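Field reference: sequence -> structure
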Amino acid sequence: MNTLNITFPLERSEVVSMLQHFKISPTRQRVEIAEFLFQRPQHLSAEKILDGVTREGNRVSRATVYNTMGLFSNKGVVREVLIDRERVFYDSNPEVHQHLYNIDTGELTDVYDAEVEMVAEPELPEGLKIIDTDIVYKVTAR
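Structure field:
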């Protein structure tokens, strides 16, 4: 992810600048979606984003939210966290971190490297390099 130094919440002008930094045209809908996302570090599904953006009085379609989140993820604005085929979260936290997913509550929380003993990187075939790592610990009550 192309990280930026973000201080939450982002103001509208900061959202526009951030989108331009990632070479994304700041349409009204994209700005409204990004403003909602970058109120604080959070993990949201596309449906939660749609609910939140419309609750704030903005008019945006479900297709626009899904398309925008795909764009934001592809460009590195947010991190897509895939739990399974039916559960995808979008993470507004640009810091390097891993995730803890509670199967019982459906909650996704951040885990930082200092809290995790990392294993050595795997030996890769010649010419390849690791560009990103996503670790999601799935937990349940005992």
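Note: The longest strand covers residues 79-84.
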